[in-house]
């Protein structure tokens, strides 16, 4: 029975997307018997969530910043005085939102994204491969030799460890869902190695869960397909779909080489995500 491995950076999308990604992962949970994770995936999520939430807090704070220009004549104007009152009220409410985000970052039990991730990961029907010293040794050798998947210029071996976990344990055909270019750019090479080590097929490397479900014989919902089409369309236009401003590129890099990136509008602070 073919399986799907979903990389950490796909799960991290839940924090960044303005769309209904929580609902999407409720659907993913329905296919627990077809899911594969690694213990490193869980650890990467735990570490990266705090950094992403802090970035969200900063983005939110910047998005509601209001510093009206002032002069003595403006300060005597009733409308201006009303504006200042509203500004102060906005700031107080924004501080409450920031406190919420800080609480989510500091206490994982308050984190709705983490809740659904760990619900999936802890499901006994989901296969979780453990990292051990043998896996790490093989991953380190792969890093030294520059054999894909590897991230050039980084000291970490996250991608290498995950790949060694998969090739060292899989007994089924596999589809991989990830953003990491090291998998996409070396698809043919990885498929050949996967077959040589496991006797099975690497069916697909994709950025879309819906495509992975289709390739293993499942039928994704229209909601999932639609959601991922929205994410794909955002990558095709580097201009904000809300206000038309040119987008800025932002992102994060986790401690194990895991990464994700997205567009942020410097004017209205809308987030858009690459395919």
In short:
It contains twelve helices and eight strands. The chain has 275 residues and is of the alpha/beta class.
**How many helical stretches?**
12
**Annotated CATH topology of the largest domain:** Rossmann fold
What percentage of residues falls in helices of 4 or more residues? Answer: 40-55%
Supply the number of structural domains: 2
Sequence of secondary-structure elements = EHHEHHHHEHHEHHEHHEEE
Question: Cα distance, first to last residue?
Answer: 27 Å
Low-confidence stretches: none
pLDDT averaged over residues: 86
CATH class of the largest domain: Alpha Beta
The rounded Rg comes to 22 Å
Strand-residue fraction? 5-15%
**Strands in their spatial order, largest beta sheet:** 3-2-1-4-5
Q: Main beta sheet: strand number and arrangement?
A: 5 strands, parallel
Determine the CATH superfamily of the largest domain: 5'-nuclease
Which CATH architecture of the largest domain is right?
3-Layer(aba) Sandwich
Number of DSSP-assigned strands = 8
